[in-house]
């Protein structure tokens, strides 16, 4: 990490609250950050990754960071790149779904029953859900102005 990248890290680290700093400064083992929208989860995880790479001899490719949204992965990669530069390209940052897809495609011998799987679109997912609802009589589902 060069001086300007280190300065960015220190500036962002100083803005964190005590619990966020604890997550960022925990160098060993996994950390799960659960918080509401706009609370700084992405920043905390990006700072933690930068901190681990700054203070240890961990290879960037040894780090796995999972988020729920594609926008979260993009934002994390972008912030991490500002903090540590090109090293950030070697850090594994995925959504949960894209990571699972990556594992299945990387190790097809372990997932033979899924060898031809495809991720379905939102429209396909909606059609399947509607089909399930239409074919069953769910009495405990309460709808609001729509059967779906």
Structure characterization notes:
The chain has 148 residues and is mainly α. Helices cover 50% and strands 5% of the residues. The protein contains six helices and two strands; from the N terminus they run αααβαβαα. It has helices at residues 3-13, 18-25, 41-55, 70-84, 96-106, 122-135; strands at 64-67, 92-95. It has a two-stranded parallel ribbon with strand order 1-2. α4 links the parallel β1 and β2 (92-95). α2 packs parallel to α3. The chain is extended. The termini are far apart. The mean pLDDT is 87.
Radius of gyration: 20 Å
- The helix/strand class is mainly alpha
Number of helical elements: 6
Number of strands: 2
Could you tell me the mean pLDDT?
A: 87
String of helices and strands: HHHEHEHH
Beta-strand share of residues: 5-15%
Order the strands across the largest sheet as they lie in space: 1-2
How much helicity do the residues have? Answer: 40-55%
* Shape field: extended
Largest beta-sheet characterization: 2 strands, parallel
Measure the end-to-end span: 52 Å
Unreliable runs: none
Please sum up the structure shown.
This protein is mainly α and 148 residues long. The protein is built from 6 helices and 2 strands; from the N terminus they run H-H-H-E-H-E-H-H. Helix content is 50%, strand content 5%.
Topology (SSEs and partners):
Layout: H1 3-13, H2 18-25, H3 41-55, E1 64-67, H4 70-84, E2 92-95, H5 96-106, H6 122-135
Parallel strand pairs: 1-2
List the main descriptive attributes of the protein structure presented here.
mainly alpha; 2 strands; 148 residues
């Amino acid at each position: 990490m060069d001086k300007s990248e280190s300065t960015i890290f220190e500036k962002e680290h100083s803005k964190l609250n005590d619990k966020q700093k604890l997550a960022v400064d925990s160098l060993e083992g996994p950390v799960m950050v659960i918080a509401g929208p706009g609370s700084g989860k992405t920043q905390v995880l990006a700072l933690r990754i930068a901190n681990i790479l700054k203070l240890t001899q961990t290879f960037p490719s040894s780090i796995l960071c999972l988020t729920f949204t594609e926008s979260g992965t993009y934002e994390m990669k972008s912030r991490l790149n500002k903090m540590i530069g090109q090293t950030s390209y070697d850090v594994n940052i995925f959504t949960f779904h894209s990571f699972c897809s990556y594992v299945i495609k990387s190790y097809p011998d372990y997932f033979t029953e899924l060898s031809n799987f495809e991720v379905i679109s939102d429209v396909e997912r909606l059609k399947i859900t509607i089909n399930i609802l239409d074919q069953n009589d769910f009495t405990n589902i309460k709808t609001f102005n729509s059967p779906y």
